[in-house]
């Protein structure tokens, strides 16, 4: 609206007190009028004209084995579909669908759905409703009639000539997980619009918004001020400097063009295109070593300390594979003989830690497990007729930022659980910090190696008598020593002088030697061989307290040193 101010020059204004007041007040009145228009315009831009409860009935919760997201319930060609994000369903073929039977209560699981397809290029997936929870068929006609315990109203799409512009109102619906199974509605405006091209058509691709979006909102429903379905909440970008958040909404028009192009949809997660850094790499060396195991080794139970986790989501493998893992295998096992049964399990050190197990078999098949039983969060696999050959093993965490220490166990008699697993020293294990070759007269002297002290083995409960502390299963360092029978001293200096560490050494003749404090003035340990024989010295550095880790350096010297 344009306000035009007219002035009549035929008459000179009377110079009275009243005219002076008018000259002062008129500009103020004009400013107020303009501000009023601006405020009214802003209200119009943010106004919503739709039934929130009605739209809420078409917003569903998508539940898979390891989490939940949101989706939009649509009817396309008389088929009941759920449109959602690809990352909500990644790795899964089936899902349960929850709806609002009561608008003021949490969602209620009503339907079963299967993956109809997903886009290889975009974060879009579509599910097909296959039936109710009892397996009975579900039809679009009965859904419209309210036959499934809730009134359903279809989401409307904007007219083709309608464009979403900056400043327009958006309403975001979804199940963010901040309140269990409850639908949350937030509002905001469109901050930016990005266009893309699909099959030669120029279509809106992304809308950016200041509306609040949480992780569980992914796949949900976004409407404009008229209640028309325009987008899917997909991700949020955080600006570290300002602390601001900007949500990204995948345009519904683009998403529907994708799912209508059924020939381009993929149905097998293994077919999805991934970069090398998004895949597990069987060609890499295992992070925690390898072992060649015989039937006798498995009968005695083979154990290996492992830290789970990584930044690759393993769900793309399918076959119930879950968890975040590293690119390289955690451990590699080569069986020398076929086993009637091979039991593989991982036992976390802390109760309540949730991990997953992934195994690539000699024939290339993937076997995965989350929880071995209903009473544990530890994973376990039973492989019948386990062929001889190479088994690559990963242990996953439920978050890319979670790293869980525990013990991998392999047996041919039973699943090794926490109650029958006691961490023991493994003299044949690969040393965590590598192998070292030194000869008499080495330089520089002392030789220093960075070590992180600590581990799962409680020396007080081990076969080594008279020693205290907690060390790793494998040695920290393996020293190959060549020299005359002279003095050889080992000591550890912690970065934190108040940290209490211990030292354990297995000498070439098989004897064990340990120390807690090198002298009365220090908490650092040390041990001296007065007549050190040539051969292999396996060295562990431990912590006096359980479940602690100490940074420091192991020192090896031919001199007589007082440890501080």
Automatic annotation (TrEMBL):
Q: Which GO biological process categories is it annotated with?
A: proteolysis
Q: Which UniProt keywords apply?
A: Hydrolase, Protease
Asked whether the keyword Protease is assigned, the reply is yes
One Pfam family here: Trypsin_2
MF-aspect GO terms: serine-type endopeptidase activity
Q: What is this protein called?
A: Serine protease
Presence of the UniProt keyword Metal-binding in the record: no
């Amino acid at each position: 609206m344009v306000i035009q101010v007219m002035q009549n020059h035929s008459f000179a204004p009377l110079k009275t007190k009243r005219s002076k007041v008018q000259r002062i007040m008129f500009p103020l009145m004009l400013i107020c009028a303009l501000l009023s228009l601006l405020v009214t315009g802003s209200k119009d831009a943010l106004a919503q004209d739709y039934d929130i409860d009605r739209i809420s009935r078409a917003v569903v919760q998508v539940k898979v084995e390891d989490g939940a997201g949101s989706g939009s319930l649509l009817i396309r060609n008389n088929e009941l579909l759920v449109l959602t994000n690809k990352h909500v369903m990644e790795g899964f073929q089936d899902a349960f669908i929850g709806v609002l039977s009561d608008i003021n209560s949490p969602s209620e699981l009503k339907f079963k759905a299967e993956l109809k397809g997903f886009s290889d290029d975009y974060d879009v997936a579509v599910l097909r409703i296959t039936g109710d929870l009892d397996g009975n068929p579900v039809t679009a006609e009965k859904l419209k009639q309210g036959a499934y315990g809730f009134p359903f109203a279809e989401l409307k799409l904007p007219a083709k000539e309608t464009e979403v512009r900056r400043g327009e109102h958006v309403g975001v619906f979804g199940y963010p997980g901040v309140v269990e199974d409850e639908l949350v509605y937030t509002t905001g405006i469109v901050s930016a619009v990005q266009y893309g091209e699909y099959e030669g058509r120029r279509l809106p691709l992304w809308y950016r918004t200041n509306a609040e979006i949480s992780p569980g909102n992914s796949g949900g429903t976004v409407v404009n001020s008229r209640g028309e379905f325009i987008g899917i909440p997909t991700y949020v970008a955080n600006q570290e400097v300002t602390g601001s958040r900007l949500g990204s909404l995948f345009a519904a028009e683009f998403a529907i063009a994708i799912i209508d192009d059924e020939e381009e949809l993929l149905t097998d997660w293994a077919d999805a295109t991934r970069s090398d850094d998004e895949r597990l790499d069987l060609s890499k060396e295992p992070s925690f070593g390898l072992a060649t195991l015989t039937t006798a080794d498995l009968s005695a139970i083979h154990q290996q300390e492992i830290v789970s986790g990584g930044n690759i989501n393993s769900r793309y493998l399918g076959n119930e594979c879950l968890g975040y893992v590293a690119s390289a295998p955690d451990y590699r096992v080569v069986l020398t003989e076929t086993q009637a049964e091979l039991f593989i399990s991982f036992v976390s050190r802390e109760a309540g830690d949730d991990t997953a197990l992934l195994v690539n078999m000699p024939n290339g098949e993937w076997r995965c497990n989350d929880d071995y039983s209903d009473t544990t969060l530890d994973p376990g696999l039973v492989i019948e007729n386990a062929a001889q050959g190479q088994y690559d093993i990963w242990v996953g965490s439920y978050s890319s930022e979670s790293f869980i220490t525990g013990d991998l166990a392999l047996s041919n008699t039973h699943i090794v659980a926490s109650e029958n697993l006691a961490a023991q020293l493994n003299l044949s294990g690969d040393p965590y910090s590598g192998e070292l070759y030194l000869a008499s007269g080495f330089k520089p002297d002392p030789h220093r190696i960075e070590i992180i002290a600590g581990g799962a083995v409680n020396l007080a409960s081990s076969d080594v008598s008279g020693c205290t502390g907690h060390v790793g299963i494998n040695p920290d360092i393996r020293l190959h020593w060549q020299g005359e029978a002279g003095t050889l001293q080992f000591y550890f200096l912690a970065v934190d002088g108040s940290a209490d560490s211990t030292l354990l050494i297995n000498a070439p003749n098989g004897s064990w030697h340990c120390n807690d404090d090198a002298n009365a003035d220090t908490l650092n340990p040390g041990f001296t061989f007065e007549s050190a024989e040539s051969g292999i010295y396996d060295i562990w550095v431990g912590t006096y307290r359980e479940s602690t880790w100490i940074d420091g350096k192991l020192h090896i010297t031919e001199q007589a040193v007082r440890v501080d």
